Amino acid sequence: MTDLLHVDHVSKRYAQGGVLSRDHVDAVIDADFSLNRKAPEIFTIIGESGSGKTTLARMILGLETPTSGRILFEGAPVPTTGTGRQRRAFMAKVQPVFQNPFEAFNPLKRVDRYLSSTARSFLGLTKPSDIDAAMDAALHKVGLTLAEVGGRYPHELSGGQLQRAAIARALVCNPSLLIADEPVSMVDASLRMSIVNLLKALRDDAGVTVIYITHDLATAYYISDRILIMQKGRVVETGPARVVLDAPLHPYARLLKASVLSTADAGAGRLEPSSALIAECDGLLQRADGSRLVAQADGRQVRVYG
After folding, report:
1. Spatial distance between the Cα atoms of 205 and 85, rounded to a whole number of angstroms
2. What is the pTM of this model?
3. Closest CA to 10 of 254, 235, 160, 255
């Protein structure tokens, strides 16, 4: 059975310095995972800034070309250039939602025009009544209506409304894969759960697979089916979300968990992990070449060294 998405040992290297410089940065190193076409899920990529998670997302979207490896969507290579028929067909099925909704919309352009443009471009609709129906259907999926959004500019909507409108724009063309890059980090804390619950509903009710990119372990624990943890471009631990986050094995995964305030220890309020754990993680980075992911009995994979 063809996977919905197969990231096949993908790496991304950027050159640094001038034309003759041999310096480089490895943003992603040998990432490898698959998403099942028949089982919609929320697959979460976790890591701090610089871990490579956004670069990996951009390669999946075809906005960056892998240095090595390949990315297949429904069995075919992800098209990375142009606006031709193949690229348009891919974009209709794979849609992004970015971090800051206020940067995703031109402040001088009405929000509904983004949705109508998507309906025209990807659904081929021309009749105004059909376009309105497609927009309204997508907006209803995110708890909004065309009557609420129509004719309004971005500044006339709250951050939560605008992020939901951004998700609705992505849903107009009925995608099978949604890539949500830090979709709640710019939204007020009181509204974050509404966005997170919306992603769950898209999985459960609309059958949309979601790649959720975040550094927030709390929301990841709440909504994820599987997670993949990245450190400096490498996957260090991956597997069922509850298995990994309840008892992480890799030192970096333990470091991430230790950096989150535990509700069980709210009185003490300690956020800082031990210096020994930080030193262990730093030491492993120096030994990363030649390391490998090893399958565990509980369904996860963990990077081992030496």
Report:
1. 29
2. 0.91
3. 235
Note whether 119 and 125 are within 8 A (CB).
Answer: yes
Helix extents (H) in 124-238: 128-141, 146-149, 159-171, 189-206, 217-223
CA distance 199 to 187: 15
Per-residue pLDDT of the chain (306 residues; tens, 9 = 90+): 679 999 999 999 998 876 666 788 999 999 999 999 999 999 999 988 889 999 999 999 999 999 999 999 999 999 987 668 888 899 999 999 988 888 888 999 999 999 999 999 999 999 999 999 999 999 999 989 999 999 999 999 988 889 999 999 999 999 999 999 988 877 777 778 888 999 999 999 999 999 999 988 888 999 999 999 999 999 999 999 999 999 999 999 999 888 775 444 544 444 456 788 888 888 899 899 989 999 999 999 999 997
Range of the domain at 154: 5-304
CA dihedral of 208, 183, 56, 283, whole degrees rounded to 10: -130
Q: How many CB atoms lie within 10 A of CB 288?
A: 16
Is 214 strand, coil or helix?
Answer: strand
Q: Give which of 12, 5, 15 is closest to 94, Cα–Cα.
A: 5
Do residues 109 and 100 lie in contact, with contact meaning Cβ atoms separated by under 8 Å? no
Looking up residue 200, the CATH number of its domain turns out to be 3.40.50.300
- Kindly state the tokens that stand for 170: 């992505």
Number of domains within the chain: 1
β-strand pairing of 226-231 with 42-46? parallel
Calculate the alpha carbon distances from 207 to 42, 62, 183, 200 in Å: 11, 23, 19, 10
- Using the 8-state DSSP alphabet, how is residue 53 labeled? H
Separation in Å, CA 223 to CA 40, 88, 100, 204, 301 = 13, 30, 21, 11, 20
Residue ranges in 207-240 assigned as alpha helix (H): 217-223
